Amino acid sequence: MMAKNSRGKRPCSICRKWFAPDVRQKGRQRTCSPACQKELHRRQCENWNRKNKAVSKNNYLAKKLEEAENPQTSGKLPVLPLEVIEIEYGVKPAIIAQYLVTQVISHTKEKIREFP
Ligand SMILES: [Zn+2]
Predict the structure, then answer these.
(1) Looking at residue 74, what is its pLDDT?
(2) Interval between CA 30 and ligand 1 midpoint (Å)
(3) Rounded to two decimals, what is the model's pTM?
(4) Phi then psi for 26, rounded to 5 degrees?
(5) What is the Å distance from ligand 1's center to 42 Cα?
(6) How far is the centre of ligand 1, averaged over its atoms, from the C-alpha of 50 (Å)?
(7) Is the pLDDT of residue 14 over 90?
(8) 85, burial (CB in 10 Å: exposed 0-12, middle 13-18, buried 19+)
(9) Residue 68 pLDDT > 50, yes or no?
(10) Does residue 3 fall inside a structural domain?
């Protein structure tokens, strides 16, 4: 909650120190100094990366692709969600994806033969 009597002052998003934002950057400034601004940007990038990773972890297709890449850890052959690819990206990418997965499977089978 922002105090009404602080006359435009706000707490820094990074160090929590109260500061008066530059009037030229009305409503945009969230940090008290360039150093804190840099840190804010770094944290935002970090958050974005973490969020992105979480999204791809929850993504059905990404999971299937991961399994196709690491069948030895999943312990079963990958099932390619061709219907999903077709709906999302069209028939041609689905064919390409099927081809690539077939390549991965045959490559993996060779690997398994090498390590009985
Ligand atoms: Zn600060």
Answers:
(1) 47
(2) 8
(3) 0.40
(4) -45, 120
(5) 14
(6) 23
(7) yes
(8) buried
(9) yes
(10) no
How far apart, in whole angstroms, are the C-alpha atoms of residue 116 and residue 104? 18
Same domain? For 86 and 53 the reply is no
* CA 18–ligand 1 middle distance (angstroms): 8
- Do 36 and 74 lie in one domain? The reply is no
Query: Is residue 2 one of the residues assigned to a domain?
Result: no
The C-alpha atoms of residue 60 and residue 8 are separated, in whole angstroms, by 46
Beta bridge partners of 54: none
Give distance in angstroms: CA of 2 to centre of ligand 1. 16
Q: Are residues 90 and 112 in the same domain?
A: yes
Ligand 1 geometric centre to CA of 39 (Å): 9
- Domain span at residue 112? 59-116
Q: How far is the CA of 19 from the centre of ligand 1 (A)?
A: 8
> Does the pLDDT value for residue 39 go beyond 90?
yes
Q: How far is the CA of 33 from the centre of ligand 1 (A)?
A: 6
